[in-house]
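Handover notes (outgoing to incoming on-call)

Open items:
1. Class I SAM-dependent methyltransferase: sequence verified, structure written out, both below. Nothing else pending on this one.
2. Nothing else urgent.
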Amino acid sequence: MEADNERIIGLYQRHALTWDKDRSRDLVEKAWLDKFLALLSPNASILDIGCGMGEPIARYLIGQGCVVTGVDSAPTFIDFCRTRFPHHQWLVADMRTLVLDKPFQGILAWDSFFHLNHDDQRRMFAVFRHHAAAGAALLFTSGPAHGTAIGNYQGEPLYHASLDSDAYHHHLREHGFTVVDHVIEDPACGYRTVWLAKQDNQK
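Class I SAM-dependent methyltransferase structure tokens:
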């Protein structure tokens, strides 16, 4: 039987049309996105890992002048993005095996990275580093503490996992990132646990 964490790709693809309607366009993430953008130069290149259907986050970044490359494992989400934002790049890919041939000034994994199991999350820091230009900013969400949580979407189990704060600090340092800001269960952002980090200037 397929593990809950491996069902995520199929779940979002099966329910892509419903998710597109359900996903709030209220930009509760704006304060964190603005902190992220403040670390970047104008017209920065952004890698959006788990971009979904491109709204509201990619739309906001594009509106701020960023050049976005979005990656998602659900083909229908990528179709939405290509239709909505045809002048940006959108790729169907599994974030765990992502290898692109260029670095980015900003890397974003908002409400996506936390669908991976613990081991896959640990391995993702090498993926972040591989795609980070010198001085790149990294913004991602996690859980508040080590563990797993199974939610529900459209009657199917929706897997989430998290390492603890010490582990995230360790993996960030190990891959050349310094934490700029971190809030556990930020009440101003839907009680998300958010990490903002910056890559060392020398890679």
